[in-house]
Write a structure and sequence with these properties.
Length: 205
């Protein structure tokens, strides 16, 4: 399983988390987020893919940030249209589209994006844009019949691992970890992340 840790800000914390054996690291470029990234550089090992998280951002500003930090993926967490996603992808950008989920109706929104993105990220529907710390009923994802791979997000924490191990879907490729592994907004508990990854490996998920 691919592991993405999102909402990173502190340079030393990034290195501690990277050493846990994760593949992707997310940086939030949304000023209203308590995990808003404002540092001048991102320094992580070369094997870590850097994901920039944006919410209804101006495309030109978003691509400027992409180039400045040498990002690998654009994660669009707002109301970005399928057309915008498709245009960005046609220009060579790798796109992750977050879909807020609480019902089967929310799953149907993926249909318009099916050929426009590289991955989906299914998160909990809430009043804001992610980071609620709340999980949703993962069983609703049985209604997702698309071919685009996805990451599961939304309130994932170490204590939920037994339920995660019982969840399966042919397009599930990994988990997105954020507030459930924090000691403070933007500061991750590397030991808890390492424990999560070690237990996943032991069960051969």
């Amino acid at each position: 399983m691919l592991i993405k840790v999102c909402g990173m800000r502190d340079a030393n914390n990034m290195l501690d988390v990277a050493a846990c054996g994760i593949q992707w690291m997310g940086f939030i470029f949304y000023p209203q987020s308590p995990r808003y990234f404002q540092e001048t550089v991102i320094e992580v090992p070369d094997n870590i893919c850097k994901v920039g998280v944006f919410v209804n951002a101006d495309p030109a500003e978003m691509l400027s940030i992409y180039n400045r930090y040498k990002l690998d993926y654009l994660q669009l967490h707002g109301n970005e249209s399928p057309e915008l996603c498709r245009k960005l992808r046609e220009k060579g950008y790798k796109i992750i589209k977050a879909i807020s989920v609480s019902s089967e109706e929310d799953i149907r929104k993926t249909e318009a994006y099916e050929s426009a993105v590289d991955y989906f990220l299914f998160d909990t529907r809430c009043t804001g844009y992610g980071g609620s710390g709340q999980a949703f009923d993962w069983s609703v994802l049985k209604h997702y019949k698309g071919q685009t791979p996805f990451l599961l997000s939304g309130g994932i924490r170490l204590e939920l691992l037994p339920q995660l191990l019982r969840f399966s879907h042919p397009q599930l490729i990994g988990f997105d970890l954020n507030s459930g592994f924090e000691s403070a907004p933007g500061l991750k508990d590397a030991k808890r992340i390492q424990s999560f990854i070690n237990q996943l490996k032991q069960t051969n998920v």
